[in-house]
Design brief:
The protein has about 325 residues and is α/β, with parallel strands linked by helices. It is built from 11 helices and 13 strands. Helix 1 links the parallel strand 1 and strand 2 (about 25-30). It is globular and about 55 Å long.
Length: about 325
């Protein structure tokens, strides 16, 4: 029996595949390399000494996706594949809704056809929108401020409605807070296609002098130092959370939304200073105006993940800063060496 990992060559996907292989799961990856690189597959084999099956395809390619299920005995799916750039989604809404939502519907149709009803979905804390007050709990109403966020909200509803219509489905919706950091080896990590949208890859590209300085989006928020507060979680903790969610999905039915966060909020300046201290590097920055759509404070109540999945984050902010830098220092051009 195999685990199908869609988007398994991506940042979080590749870290999760490493954990799956290290725990003796059989793995099948589908990825279209729209936000990843073939080199990742070699690095996964190098790190685990294990092999896996790979298909280069986009989920919209239903016929070839059916072929994956024909050729492999899939027992569950971990679904990462999707576009994820908030800003880009505002200028390309159709592409985001088609790729993310239609792609997921095609995946679910094929899963249903082959009677595979266990799925772990890569959702996001972005579904908590602008109107909830941290710490965020899973029972709070969901909303979004951009098409990317809305694709996550809509897909959560699709999975919940599916589990109501057919009680054999067991979708686990993992709401990631802010994934940063990299595998201890520094051989896999976050490799954005263009100028990074997210904080940590921007910092590491300043540190490796690919970018000149960090722009901090606003220091006039109602927070201790005025900069935005987020719940940063080590990508390896996040990956391990997926194995706990997979185990839960395989042994239960019904839809469950679960926060994957530390429950600890850090400001932008906290992260900059932690990075500088952990790596003995100065990060030049400039305070600029707020970024539209940003919330002031967002962090998880991680209780449900602990009670339901028996999972909690273990890595410190220092670990996250140290491993982010190790990855970037050893791979200044990412996977495009
Ligand atoms: C973090 C903090 C910024 C960049 C988004 C998505 C979420 C997930 C992660 C996809 C904020 C500040 C950032 C910069 C800055 N996306 N910042 N300068 O916005 O919390 O979450 O990314 O998986 O779904 O919503 O993450 O890293 O962009 O921002 O000052 O150059 O850093 O204002 O306070 P965010 P982020």
């Amino acid at each position: 029996m195999s685990i199908l990992v869609t988007g398994g060559a991506g940042y979080i996907g590749s870290h999760t595949v490493v954990e799956l292989l290290n725990n003796d799961y059989e793995v099948v990856i589908v990825d279209d390399f729209s936000n990843s690189h073939p080199t990742v597959l070699d690095r996964i084999k190098e790190l685990t000494g294990k092999d896996f099956t790979f298909y280069e395809l986009n989920l919209l390619d239903k016929e070839n996706l059916q072929n994956v299920f024909l050729e492999n005995d899939i027992e569950a799916v971990i679904h990462f594949a999707g576009f994820k750039a908030v800003g880009e989604s505002v200028s390309l809404p159709l592409e985001y809704y088609h790729n993310n939502v239609t792609g997921t519907i095609v995946l679910l149709e094929v899963m249903k056809e082959f009677n595979v009803k266990n799925i772990v979905f890569s959702s996001s804390a972005t579904v908590y929108g602008m109107d909830n007050k941290a710490p965020f709990t899973e029972d709070m109403p969901t909303s979004a401020t951009n098409p990317y966020g809305y694709t996550k909200v809509v897909i959560e509803h699709i999975l919940e409605d599916l589990a109501v219509a057919d009680n054999e489905w067991s979708p686990i919706l993992l709401r990631y807070f802010n994934p940063i950091g990299a595998h201890e080896s520094g051989r896999i990590g976050e490799d954005p296609n263009d100028i990074p949208n997210n904080l940590m890859p921007y910092i590491t590209q300043v540190a490796v002098q690919k970018l000149e300085k960090l722009s901090i989006y606003g220091d006039d928020y109602d927070t201790p130092d005025g900069t935005g507060v987020r719940d940063y979680i080590h990508v390896v903790d996040l990956a391990k959370g997926h194995l706990k969610a997979l185990d839960y999905s395989l042994n239960h039915t019904g839809a469950q939304a679960v926060n994957l966060g530390t429950g600890e909020g850090y400001s932008v300046l906290d992260v900059v200073h932690a990075f500088e201290k952990a790596n003995d590097i100065k990060i030049p920055y400039e305070i600029v105006k707020r970024r539209p759509g940003d919330i002031a404070v967002g962090y998880a109540d991680p209780t449900k993940a602990k009670d339901l999945l028996g999972w909690e984050a273990k890595h410190s902010l220092e670990d996250m800063c140290r491993t982010s830098w190790k990855w970037q220092k050893n791979n200044p051009q990412g996977y495009k060496e």
